[in-house]
Design brief:
The chain has helices at residues 2-49, 61-67; strands at residues 54-59, 69-72, 83-85, 109-110, 116-125, 131-142, 150-156, 159-164, 179-180, 186-195, 200-209, 225-233. The chain is an alpha+beta fold and 237 residues long.
Length: 237
């Protein structure tokens, strides 16, 4: 009799162990699925930010923490930002710069159209010292030579400059541009001396594919471009 009871108890214990094992395996499977989903989402975000139209603005975090230099999508900000990201346009087609809205410098934050990127932000001195800052916009990634027909308009406190790559024959800037790209990897540079406490500089960046550029051909289809703008305090010499 004791042996039968012992066998029953052993069976019950084995059944519980099997059930516990099944539960543990199911939990582990769910965790694996969850982790895979997180990795997939992270990869998708990274991939989409590398697609055409991605634009990022950054300042040196040391300059933000020590000198109060900060970024904001509005002139009145509630927190310091060292990085801003514009919304992305995934399938841009070529347009003429003459078709851009007249009020494109009048809207804060991202205000893209179907075939252009428009982003307005503010660089603010929230510190106690008058400083000099410098900034530059770089081409961080490009494929299919799409930069051959790209235009970048930069408004600084309402003053607009249109940048484009040097003509492919090397003869200078395109007719619709105010200036050539600063180099093969840089679009433009800027500097502001005497940037006083509480001062704000307003920037609007507009990016489009210029249909009137002779280099705007079918060879550019599927091309991607990523731009980044960095600001830093210039040390006095």
């Amino acid at each position: 009799m004791d042996e039968k009871i012992r066998d029953v108890l052993e069976l019950r214990r084995t059944a519980k162990e099997v059930k516990r094992h099944v539960i543990v395996m199911r939990v582990l499977a769910l965790l694996v699925i969850f982790l895979v989903a997180i990795v997939a989402i992270a990869y998708a975000i990274s991939y989409f930010y590398d697609k055409f139209g991605s634009f990022t603005v950054r300042i040196d975090k040391y300059d933000m923490l020590k000198q109060g230099l900060t970024l904001s999508e509005t002139p009145n900000y509630d927190k310091a930002n060292a990085r801003l990201n514009a919304d992305i346009v995934y399938d841009m087609t070529n347009i003429s710069g003459e078709d851009l809205p007249d009020n494109i410098d009048m809207i804060n934050g991202s205000h893209n159209g179907d075939s252009y990127i428009a982003y307005t932000f503010y660089l603010i001195n929230s510190g106690d010292d008058t400083i000099t800052y410098e900034g530059d916009m770089s081409i961080e990634n490009v494929t299919n030579n799409v930069d051959e027909a790209i235009r970048v308009a930069v408004f600084i406190n309402g003053e607009r400059t249109i940048y484009g790559k040097t003509k492919s024959n090397g003869s200078g800037k395109e007719g619709d541009c105010d200036s050539e790209f600063a180099s093969s990897t840089k679009v433009m540079k800027t500097e502001h001396e005497g940037f006083a406490p509480n001062a704000k500089d307003k920037y609007t960046v507009v990016i489009w594919l210029e249909g009137n550029d002779p280099d705007c051909t079918d060879d550019l289809i599927g091309g991607t471009l990523k731009l980044g703008m960095d600001f830093r305090i210039k040390e006095s010499t």
